[in-house]
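Quick one, tokens below:
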């Protein structure tokens, strides 16, 4: 009995001594875990993870999002609203690449040859952490439309239009609907980037980007964003054409076989038209 009690006491002392080396975790009031880890990648992923929306959204079980407790509403002027601040908390590329290929890819079932962006679900410019709960290999077009949403939310927080907690919760839930949920739709995040709008009616619009996707079936991705949800979006290039319905936020990913790099792609969403070029 005494040996058992001694073992328990020793274990407790070891845990107490080791605790300071671990990232500080606590529950945030709006459901996001707080992880203090500036300048380094922490944590890991456990179990099988599944992409949503063709890789535009992560598995909420594996990547629910987490935030840095050092970034609060009271100190945004000295943190996320201060030019260059994110560079002080961003991990070195060697760490993020090691996590991306050694941890995230295996758990998300992503082939090693795929091109993805290891992205923060809650971005650093909104006080996101560098923990595994906030990182996933995203399949974005280039430039990534999520970047513009992040900028829009950062400006809204720094201008006092939206609270930091609300912005964090909205983008962790779904970056494609974050602006609408916060009542700031129509900002810089409404553009998908990389394509040109045009045609169609004065009220309907779309943007598109195209990216070669190195998959076994040699399909390529056309990323479409429009202000027309649940509407057929059609991409056409070099005699090939395919359609897919936009989601509730007006986004769609269309797989299109055949067109080589550099080929122009015509996109039609309802009464709007736009173009993109394979990269």
């Amino acid at each position: 009995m005494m040996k058992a009690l001694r073992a328990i006491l020793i274990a407790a002392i070891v845990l107490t001594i080791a605790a300071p080396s671990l990232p500080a975790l606590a529950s945030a009031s709006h459901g996001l875990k707080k992880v203090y880890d500036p300048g380094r990648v922490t944590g890991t992923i456990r179990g099988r993870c599944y992409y949503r929306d063709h890789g535009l959204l992560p598995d909420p079980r594996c990547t629910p999002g987490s935030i840095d407790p050092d970034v609060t509403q009271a100190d945004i002027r000295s943190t996320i609203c201060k030019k260059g601040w994110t560079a002080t908390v961003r991990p070195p590329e060697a760490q993020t690449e090691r996590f991306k290929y050694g941890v995230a890819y295996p758990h998300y079932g992503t082939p090693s040859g795929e091109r993805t962006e290891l992205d923060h679900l809650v971005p650093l410019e909104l006080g996101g952490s560098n923990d595994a709960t906030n990182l996933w290999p995203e399949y974005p077009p280039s430039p990534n439309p999520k970047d513009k949403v992040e900028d829009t939310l950062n400006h809204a927080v720094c201008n006092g239009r939206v609270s930091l907690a609300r912005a964090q919760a909205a983008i962790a839930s779904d970056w494609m609907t974050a602006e609408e949920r916060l009542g700031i739709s129509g900002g810089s995040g409404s553009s998908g980037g990389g394509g040109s709008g045009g045609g169609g009616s004065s009220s309907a619009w779309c943007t598109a980007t195209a990216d070669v996707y190195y998959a076994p079936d040699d399909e390529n991705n056309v990323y479409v964003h429009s202000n027309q949800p649940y509407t057929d979006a059609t991409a056409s290039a070099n005699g090939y054409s395919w359609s897919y319905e936009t989601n509730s936020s007006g986004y769609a990913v269309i797989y299109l076989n055949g067109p080589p790099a550099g080929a122009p792609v015509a996109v039609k969403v309802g009464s709007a038209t736009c173009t993109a070029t394979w990269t």
